[in-house]
Amino acid sequence: MISTNIDHLPSSSTLGIQLPVAVHVPWRIWGIWWLVLVLVFTVFFASIDFAPILFQDEVMNVDLGRTILNADTDWSIAWMANENRPVFLLSYVGPVLQEFAYLSIGEVGPRVSGLVGAFVAATAIVGWLLARGLSYKVSFILGIVFLLDPLFVQAYTTARVDGWTMALCISSCWILRTNALGFQHEGYNRLFVVISGALTALAFFVWPSAVFLFPLILLELFYRANRLAGEGWNLKLWPFLYFGIGGFIMGGIMIIPIALQVIEMFESIVKALIINVQPGNEIRTSYLDEKLATSLELLRVLKFTPVLFLTAIFGAFQYRQIGLGIACLTATALLISTVVYISRVQYLLPYFILAASVVYQLKEHPKTKPRARFPKMAVAVLTLLVAWPVAFSFFSRTMVALGERGERDSTLMHKAAISMIGTGEHTVALFSSFEFYYAGRSIG
Q1: How far apart (Å, rounded) are the C-alpha atoms in residues 60 and 325?
Q2: How does DSSP assign 59-101, residue by residue?
Q3: Which tens digits make up the pLDDT trace of 16-30?
């Protein structure tokens, strides 16, 4: 049984975060959540080899992992011609994970890995919401909303590692929130904060987009420090100290395996990072025009998740979530300062889920019936929240994929590769034909 202790909690938070109430969730109730995950996995796995079509990001992540494991390779789809070597990322854990998945399972391996990472992230967000005082019913529903959100689905079904990155960051938030309500021994409290810092650092080494969730983790860290009611500021700083210790230790552990490459290719790593965060437009525009364009692109992407976006805005303003608003605006500013595209915008989803959740926060009488506790409009919005992603990602996506199954058959690529190139070792310039990546590796 999972429980949250609220004895002697202060009446409000200076960060604008609504305080939780006791939530008891028997383990058998979690069985409902596992059944949901099994259902989603079954539907997505049924079309995993042909839906969605192969995207460049998928093979790019796998190939980055291959070049990290094979430092002496003389080819790559991410090759730096000027330096005659492949691109090297500091965030190597995610690509290596996808390469291992490919070597272990085959072409569908990276996509299976992406699915599992998304399920871990969704489970972490459910646990986090429970720790924040939501009922298990609302927490499960918002977990489904997150898991099936079109922005998130497009990422993990194309074998991106964003699910694993979010899982680590959200787990860090979950640990900090649970620890903030602490009834553990002081030594365990500090250990959990250290673990939270370690997970945050590990998330960056999985994929650098983790930085977009750092403001959210920092918000929970501030809440953890603020829970030391009546203590001096010197004692309130210890959560930051132990969080930093955890991050520093994990960062050191992650750097050790690639230390020589980092020293040798430091300049290349910096160049790759700069290219990754700067817009690739060849036409020079003013700074204001550039930021206006990125802001419009952000809104264009958010049209795929309108119900959650609007509910989040309402929750943040109606319930004066000042701290959450600052964290979300900080993440948005970071996002706009880089290249804005759908796979980065998805990192705003945990902020939206949290902002929407405050509408359904348990009040002083958690045993009252849901209809008495929530206005009818809030229940209707919750229905729309879950209906949109289910209809868009679960049904429409599956129907379209099944209708185009013949055109997406991966065996056609293998037959074409054998027919045009043949088996054995060949040097072939793929250019934009990344669809032949897996076929090329399979035939040698």
Answers
A1: 34
A2: HHHHHHHHHHH-TT-S--SSEETTTTEE---S--HHHHHHHHH
A3: 334 444 355 677 888
pLDDT digit string (tens) for 384-430? 999 999 999 888 887 877 776 665 566 666 566 666 666 666 565 55
Cis before residue 257, ω within 30 degrees of 0?
no
Nearest CA to 413 out of 57, 46, 44, 59 is that of 59
Q: H or E element: which one contains 225?
A: helix 214-226
Structural Rg of the chain based on CA atoms: 23
Using an 8 Å Cβ cutoff, are 41 and 119 in contact?
Answer: yes
In order of 39, 91, 175, the CA distances from 248 in angstroms are: 39, 15, 18
Helix, strand, coil percentages in the chain from 3-state DSSP, rounded to 5: 70, 0, 30
Residue 173, Cβ neighbours under 10 Å: how many?
A: 28
Q: Count CA within 13 A, CB hemisphere, residue 276.
A: 17
Q: What is the pTM of this model?
A: 0.86
